[in-house]
Amino acid sequence: MHKKGTKWAIYSVIFTIITVLTGCEPLLVLDPKGPQAARQASDILLSIGIMSVIVIVVFALLVYMLVKYRASKQRADYEPPHIEGNLWVEVIMVGIPVLIVAFLSYVSVQSNYIVEATPKGYEDKEPLVVYASSSNWKWHFSYPEEGIETVNYLYIPTDRALEFKLYSYGPITSFWIPQLGGQKYAMADMVTTLHLAADVPGEFMGRNANFSGKGFAENTFNVTAMSQEEFDDWVKEVKETAKPITEKKFEDLLEPGHLGQQTYTGTHLDFSPPPTGHNHTEESSETHEKESHTDSHAGHESMNH
pLDDT, tens digit, for every residue of 82-132? Predict the structure, then answer.
């Protein structure tokens, strides 16, 4: 009776796990829509595969040991044989974990250099530079070359490198679009650079992945990837219909709270430039930053005059 009850308990657990998993939506990090995210997804699957093999081998050895060395009736004076350590067993037990860790370390370092650089295949294309700044609890996206700004939504062209300049007007946040790439911190005293690209058009979810207060859960934004032609048409439409952003309006936007999607002409970079500190990994990033600050400085001088 006890064995029968145990069997049905195991069946119930398996059935519950299968039911829960079939009701889950696909993990966004395993549904990449860009080269950076594809690289990270392959690393995740590689790690899962290695860990699965380890778990299967360990459980197989556990079952083997339990069966082979299970309790048996022996004489009262029975003494098990004295066995010295086995060199090969010790080499395997220590060597395999070392090899696994070394291999995963190599893959991780290699991938880190890849995702920190301009996406593969986009090296010869001029990137779209977007300044993404956060405040409690919203995201501000400034397109300096296009001369427009959005709040809580992001339009991007496909088949073009994206270069995000991240910083914060409040606590440290983390900019993350799971289907396009990994997260990166936005801080108040420096600008960090994140390279992404979208291979296909579509709607993606973006959010702040770092806890930043009571409004953190709704600190999200929508991302729409479209063709370059559609993106150009959208920029033209914004310039014809949107109102300009003013210093007073931007100060109101920085007040803690939640807002819907908003669109403006001009950018807050003219009167509220990003921090002067930088954390970049490429010469191209440094060039864009220098050009941006030069233009901003020239604009301030002309305003002062």
Answer: 878 888 888 988 999 999 999 999 999 999 999 999 998 888 889 999 999
**Strand (E) or helix (H) holding 239:** helix 228-241
DSSP string, 46-80: HHHHHHHHHHHHHHHHHHHHHHHT------TT--P
**CA 222/CA 32 separation, integer angstroms:** 16
227: tokens are 């063709």
Give 73-107 as a 3 state SS string.
CCCCCCCCCCCCCCHHHHHHHHHHHHHHHHHHHHH
What is the CATH number that goes with domain 128-304? Answer: 2.60.40.420
Tell me: the pLDDT tens digits for 251-274? 999 999 999 999 999 999 999 999
> Taking a C-beta distance cutoff of 8 angstroms, is the pair 188, 166 a contact?
no
